[in-house]
Amino acid sequence: MTQGIAVHPAAAVFPMLSDDELAELAEDIKANGLLHPILLDADGVLIDGRNRLAACTLARVEPRFETFEGDPIALIVSANVSRRHLTKSQRAMALAKIEATLPTQSATRASARIIGVDAELVRRARYVLHHAPDLVAQVEAGASLNQAYQIAAERRRSEQEQEEQRQKRLDYIEQERERLLSEIERGRQQVGHPVQIPPKPELAVTFTRKPGGEINTTEPERAGLGDNLKRE
Fold first, then answer.
1. Least enclosed by CB within 10 Å: which of 49, 138, 210, 229?
2. How far apart are CA 94 and CA 143, in angstroms?
3. First-to-last CA distance in the chain?
């Protein structure tokens, strides 16, 4: 929102003027008035003039609005590319960001209308935007898009190699699991039914002392066990 007016997401892609530039524009509007109206689409969404609107507020000048009846995307791209001193890298990145906010049809129209940007450069901007978003701000500040693309592509290759190694380890673990399960099954079939192991016999012995000091022992009765039990 700017001054209570919704801003079109495609227009919001382009950065605002710096504080000094905005103050300079405000002084110009205060001295000469608002030469170009602020444009809204049919729904009242601001499509052109964010900086002019902010400068009007600084200059305390009542802004003037007009409704644009044409294609808002074409206007946004054309106005911002032609008015600003943007490098080809900056233009390509701006277009990629616009396309990311719009349906495919609108993005295609925007791509067809942009002037002075090679389609391959726009493709690289899309790649950087998707795979290395941390480099976008550098490109917007004037860094080389081609260099950012090379960094993004190298990162992507590294990620793919790591993913391939990870998948190989998972495949190996799964193969080993299947092999061990197979060996266990073969062993079970060779042994046959499991051997039933009887419970551990009760070997507890109770010691009591008779009045005369003699020690008496009492054992639990078990068939065949008492005869073989020896003690000192």
1. 210
2. 13
3. 98
Cα 51 to Cα 85: distance, rounded to the nearest angstrom: 15
List phi, psi (to 5°) of 215: -90, 130
For a pLDDT cut of 90, what percent of the chain falls above it?
Answer: 44
- What 8-state DSSP symbol labels residue 46? E
How deeply is 50 buried, as exposed, middle or buried, from its count of CB atoms within 10 A (0-12, 13-18, 19+)? buried
pLDDT tens per residue, range 66-104: 999 988 888 888 888 766 678 888 888 888 888 887 765
**Ramachandran bin of 207, using left for φ above 0, alpha for ψ from -120 to 50, beta for the remaining angles:** beta
For a pLDDT cut of 70, what percent of the chain falls above it? 74
Mean pLDDT over the full length of the chain: 81
Euclidean distance between CA atoms 217 and 212, whole angstroms: 15
Q: What is the pTM of this model?
A: 0.58
Residue 62 to residues 9, 33, 66, 171, Cα–Cα distance (Å): 24, 9, 13, 69
Nearest to 107 by CA among 89, 86, 125: 125
**Distances 93 to 47, 159, 172 between C-alpha atoms, Å:** 19, 23, 42
The predicted pLDDT at position 102 comes to: 75
- Cβ-contact 107, 98 below 8 angstroms: yes
Is 223's pLDDT higher than 50? no
Rounded-to-integer distance, Cα 229 and Cα 213, Å = 23
Q: In sequence order, what are the beta bridge partners of 7?
A: 46
How far is it, in rounded angstroms, from Cα 4 to Cα 57?
12
- For residues 178 and 186, give the distance between their C-alpha atoms in angstroms, rounded to a whole number: 12
